[in-house]
Amino acid sequence: MKLSRREVIGKGGLAAAGLSIGLTSPLKALSRRGERAKNVIFCVVDGMPLQVMAMVDHFQQIRDGKRSYWSTLLDEPFVTNGLQDTRSLNSIVTDSSAASSAWGSGRRIWNGQLNMYPDGTELKTLFQLVQEKGIRTGLVTTTRMTHATPAGFAVSCESRNLEGLIAERYLSMNIDVLLGGGDRFFSTDRRQDKKDLYSEYLRAGYAVVKSKAEMNAARGKLLGIFDDTHLPYSIDRINSAELNSKVPTLAEMTSKALSLLKGSSNGFLLQVEGGRVDHGGHSTDLAAMIYDQIEFEDALRVVVDFALEDEETLVIITADHACGGPSLNGAGSNYDDSTAGLESVVRMKASYDVIFAEIGRTPNANQVKDAIKKHLDIDLKNEEAEAVARAAENDSPFKLGSFATGLYTTLAMVLGNYTKVVFTSGNHTNEHVLVTSLGPHSELCAGLTENSSFFDLMLASFEIEHKNPVMSYEDAKKHRGGRIDDEAMRLYCNLDPIDLAH
Length: 502
Ligand SMILES: [Zn+2]
Fold this sequence. Notes:
By secondary structure, the chain is α/β, with parallel strands linked by helices.
């Protein structure tokens, strides 16, 4: 008997309305058919709008003479494609912690929290549930290890910003593989409370590594931290010999994680995150988004090759939400300037962060003009460079609109004259995101699926049954976004304001 998608995973709106989704009968059906997925790999590209995937497909045809990997994957007979509704409990536009928590606990929650309701009710997480069954776990990311998306699979916490606490929780949970950035939440020199988490991880039997070479040589439980904060944007790593030799790519980290997890007799659950497409979106930085999207798709190839050979692995590939709303616009007579616009990204060699680290956050127009020529190979007109310099003094010519008032959004607006790409904002957006899946039960990911239902699917694939409590929006609203202890923020949130909630 063929399983019904409706039986296993919920239809849009049910969980948000507080209705539970029955799993008993399909669970029995799954075990009867002996199709438990031994492993699950959940690949998330944070903040990817579909336009970026389309631009990368065309960018790679221009630059490399070939289609992008994810675009070719869409056409393979062994995958199922669908869409995901990404909303959170309190907004149609989710943040990354509520989005990841929807996968991590099967419940939509308040933006900014991790698997917890605003009244303090903790939700049991996916990693806690699978670890009870002896299933091994891993988190791989290009963000700080303690950032919202990886944390959402593992930790219940009042705020995503308590990253110092999240670093401790990973240790107490004994997660098998942790690879990413975020030294500031592990190192005694950088932590506010001066705890030396690296030593604690070593005492707990982890190999602790800080470079690509050390990672490649490591065995057993592994903590790899390769930067003080997020790993560099791919465009910056590629253009720096020093970074290239020290910092592994997402594909290299994924390959290492799979080599360590694959021997497990009870299987494993691995989350792989390409986390910085989202940051490129927040920065309205087109080249940063495109290069990090390619970085993510390179890691997908590693995951899919593993799953095709293994044949017992469910792979889910998706985004948690979109960010920035960049679109390549029709430009010129018969739109014949648009292709050259995207082509200009091939010549770009740095992220905005690197450019403004070089010239400072309040450059004059000449400095802007020179730096954009040097790093992005674009000759800004004087009035365009002046607009950027004015934005640096909080006087953007675009400030009448709420969504393009800052330095980066103003730069993106004038660069759009050349790239033909304009952003709607530097914020998350609410569009449905793509889901591509393969392996056992992947056919259930067809159609439009709400984010929280992927929790049900992953648990059902492992033959685990669990329901977290439901809280309505009206009840959650009484507690607003939850109360965050000031002392906890002081101890555990060693972040610049610009880093909060991204
Ligand atoms: Zn974000």
